[in-house]
Specification:
Blueprint (H helix, E strand, L loop, with lengths): L6 H8 L12 E9 L4 E9 L5 E8 L2 H14 L11 H7 L7 H19 L6
Helix pairs in contact: 1-2, 2-4, 3-4
């Protein structure tokens, strides 16, 4: 990683915990934003654990900030209930100590989540 990233970003990039895999809970709804060709894409997959709590997983393509933003977002949602208010890009930036130049990474995650929540709830999710 040529560019220096804050420690929380490096940790999440090297060992993301919420990546969508074949062992993940089945996704009921998914949302995506961005394009691989443009340098960044985030997919958020939402479903439910057997106990009825929310399951959140991701797939992401991009720089370490993009991977970390998606992983952090899923951590905040996983095991809980549907959020009354979606998490925002500024919250993601603050939580990961990301500079403003990494705002696109947080925005991709936020928009993918909004789309997934809209599909899960059958309507549009305010964001």
């Amino acid at each position: 990683m040529a560019e220096r990233y804050p420690a929380p970003v490096v940790t999440r990039f090297r060992q993301p915990r919420f990546v969508q895999t074949s062992d993940s809970p089945p996704a009921v709804a998914a949302g995506a934003h961005g394009a691989r060709a443009a340098g960044g894409r985030v997919e958020i997959h939402l479903g439910f654990h057997p106990d009825g709590t929310l399951a959140a997983r991701f797939r992401a393509y991009g720089d370490p900030a993009t991977i970390a933003a998606a992983d952090w977002l899923c951590e905040q949602l996983d095991g809980g209930e549907l959020p009354g208010k979606p998490l925002s890009a500024p919250e993601i930036l603050r939580a990961l100590s990301l500079p403003r130049r990494s705002a696109n990474a947080a925005f991709l995650a936020e928009q993918a989540l909004n789309e997934a929540l809209g599909r899960l709830t059958g309507g549009s999710c305010p964001g």
